[in-house]
Amino acid sequence: MYTYLKIGVGKHIEEKFLAAKNEILIAAPNISSSLSKKLINYLERGIKIKIILSESTNEQTRKSISILSNYFKKDNKKRLEIKIVDFNQASLIHAKIYIIDKKFAIIGSANLTESSFNDLPEYIIIHDDNEMVKQITSNFFEIWEKYKNQSFK
């Protein structure tokens, strides 16, 4: 287990994303367009991605959802699954969970945005213990299964 409390925690998340060989699972309330484009690069490398986002009033996140949804429509290999939880089900999915190949699980305060990754003091914990990663993965899928509508898969 590693912990980071500082400005620039995004480099640690991106290092794990870059090392992914099979799958990235993401739960975050906000995502920026540039990081959504990076996710598309991982998809193009053959990485499967599941993303849970909240319906947003944030223009940046709405634009990112549009970018990802457009990619989803063209993704004939079905590597991308997106679940957008609407306001009627939950006002916000506030969890920030990033799971890479079910080998690493990152939890903390960092959204999938440039400001969280580069500019704000954020806290993350990177777990590499199998049992802890299994538990966090199970928690991710609990969220995935609980919220049914606005799913693209």
The main pleated sheet reads as: 8 strands, mixed
Task: Using the alpha-carbon principal axes, give the shape.
Answer: globular
Task: Please indicate the percent range of residues in DSSP E strands (runs of 2 or more).
Answer: 25-35%
Number of helices: 5
- Provide the spatial order of strands within the biggest beta sheet: 1-7-6-5-2-3-4-8
DSSP strand count: 8
List the helices and strands in order. EHEHEHEEEHEHE
N-to-C terminal Cα separation, in Å?
A: 32 Å
Give unreliable regions as ranges: none
Summarize the topology.
Layout: E1 2-7, H1 10-19, E2 23-27, H2 33-44, E3 48-54, H3 59-74, E4 80-85, E5 97-100, E6 104-108, H4 114-119, E7 121-127, H5 130-146, E8 151-152
Parallel strand pairs: 2-3, 3-4
Antiparallel strand pairs: 1-7, 2-5, 4-8, 5-6, 6-7
Helix pairs in contact: 2-3
Structure description:
It is a single chain. It contains five helices and eight strands. The chain is globular and about 35 Å long. The protein is an alpha+beta fold and 153 residues long. The model has no long low-confidence stretch (mean pLDDT 90). The protein is 40% helix and 27% strand. The termini are far apart.
Features:
153 residues, alpha+beta, eight-stranded mixed β-sheet, 5 helices, 40% helix, globular
In short:
Helices cover 40% and strands 27% of the residues. It has 153 residues and is of the alpha+beta class.
